[in-house]
Amino acid sequence: MPRWMPVYEDDMTHWLWDNAQRYQWWLEIRFRAAKTPGMRYVGDTNIRIRVTYGEWPVTIAYLGTRWHADERAVISFLEALEEDGLITRRKNGLVTVISVCGFEKYCFGMPNDGAAIQSANIENDSQEAAQQFVQNDMDEEARSVTQRETESGTRNKTRTYLHKRKEIKELLIDGKREREKDFLEKLKKSESTLEGMAMSLHCELSDLLAVADDFSNATITTEDWHPTFSAFKKHFLNWARMRMKKSKDEVPQKNKSAGGYQPNAGRRRGPVTPDCGLNED
Questions:
Q1: Do 240 and 247 touch, CB atoms closer than 8 A?
Q2: I need a labelling partner for 158 at 20 to 30 A (CA). Which of 48, 134, 195, 243 fits?
Q3: The pTM is what?
């Protein structure tokens, strides 16, 4: 019997959905997590380790090779998943054991610890959903009396679908915009973080606060969203460094323009012979 795993519509509202590559990584973690406890090989090595339900033993190097990404990107991705409550991690030497949180909802109908995890509620819900689907289909046929009515109904459904999709997109953007504002407020309140950035950039704390709002407005305008506060801080630090470097480079140019061009500047003059009255009559 082939195995299958559901993909929920709620995934479209999650930050992973915005990045196809990272969503594919998340799906692979779910697919490869253990459906039953036992011994599993670690990545492409000959190392075997005992895992429990919903766990996948790997090495960071293996994931970097498989996903064609450097190890820092892999670690950052796993940290974001863990911060969002999607996974937990435990170290066993060089092996990282990834555990999918709430794994039951991704693989109902598959064995769990030797027993089927289908419940009466899930079965009843499935039956009710099937009956509702059949009833809806019959109602739709009853309403579609003529070809014109069918085409009209299709157009109406399309408009409704597009309108709903637009509303969902606006809600997603509003949510991400509010999250960026929350990140900005959190950064302003974190004095230790700002002090560390100021030391790294060799600037005053007030200089960072002066450009923080500009950074937030720029990312919101360009819809350059950040999935976590950690990503927000890293992006702001790099942005502030470039901003301050650009400001420092502009100062000498302005001074040079203000001074103007002096053709005799820097030219060494010869000695001046004093007038001692030799030319007098």
A1: no
A2: 134
A3: 0.40
